[in-house]
Write a structure and sequence with these properties.
Strand content: 5-15%
Radius of gyration: 18 Å
Structural class: mainly alpha
Number of helices: 6
Distance between the termini: 32 Å
Number of domains: 2
CATH class of the largest domain: Mainly Alpha
CATH architecture of the largest domain: Orthogonal Bundle
Shape: elongated
Number of strands: 3
CATH superfamily of the largest domain: Winged helix-like DNA-binding domain superfamily/Winged helix DNA-binding domain
CATH topology of the largest domain: Arc Repressor Mutant, subunit A
Order of helices and strands: HEHHEEHHH
Helix content: 55-70%
C-alpha cells in the first residue's frame, strides 16, 4: 500500500481492537469485544473487516473454522498519518498551537506536563 488513507470512525474502532490484540485476533473475538460497546450486528462487523482487508489494513487467514486477522499497518503508522494530516490542515504543523487548542480552558495535570517534558527531552537528542 503506497499511501495510508484516513479510516471512517467505525473502521478505526475495529482496527483499535485488532491492534490491542496483536499479533492476531479471530472474528468471534472481535464480535465478543464489540458486544458490550456497540450494537453492531455480526454481518456489519464482517463487512467492515472485508473493507479493511481491501484497503490493505488487515490480512486474513482461515484456520479450521475460524478466520484470523492480522494488522498490516501498525497503530503507530496510522496515527502518524492521522495526526500529520490534522496538523497540516488545522494547525499549520505547529505542535505548540495544537497543544494550546487541545487544552484551551483546561488545566494540564502534573503528570501530563511531565510527560510533555519527557517527550521534548527525547526529541532534543
Amino acid at each position: 500500500m503506497s499511501t495510508i488513507k484516513r479510516l471512517p470512525d467505525a473502521e478505526f474502532e475495529l482496527m483499535k481492537i485488532v491492534w490491542q490484540s496483536e499479533p492476531r485476533i479471530t472474528t468471534s473475538e472481535i464480535i465478543d469485544t464489540l458486544e458490550d460497546a456497540s450494537k453492531w450486528k455480526p454481518q456489519t462487523v464482517l463487512t467492515m473487516l472485508t473493507r479493511l482487508i481491501e484497503k490493505g489494513f488487515l490480512a486474513s487467514e482461515r484456520t479450521g473454522r475460524q478466520r484470523n486477522y492480522t494488522a498490516l499497518i501498525s497503530e503507530a503508522e496510522y496515527m502518524s498519518v492521522e495526526t500529520g494530516g490534522f496538523m497540516s490542515r488545522y494547525r499549520g504543523n505547529s505542535v505548540g498551537s495544537l497543544i494550546k487548542t487541545m487544552y484551551a480552558g483546561k488545566d494540564l495535570t502534573v503528570e501530563e506536563i511531565e510527560e510533555l517534558r519527557q517527550w521534548l527531552k527525547e526529541k532534543e537528542h
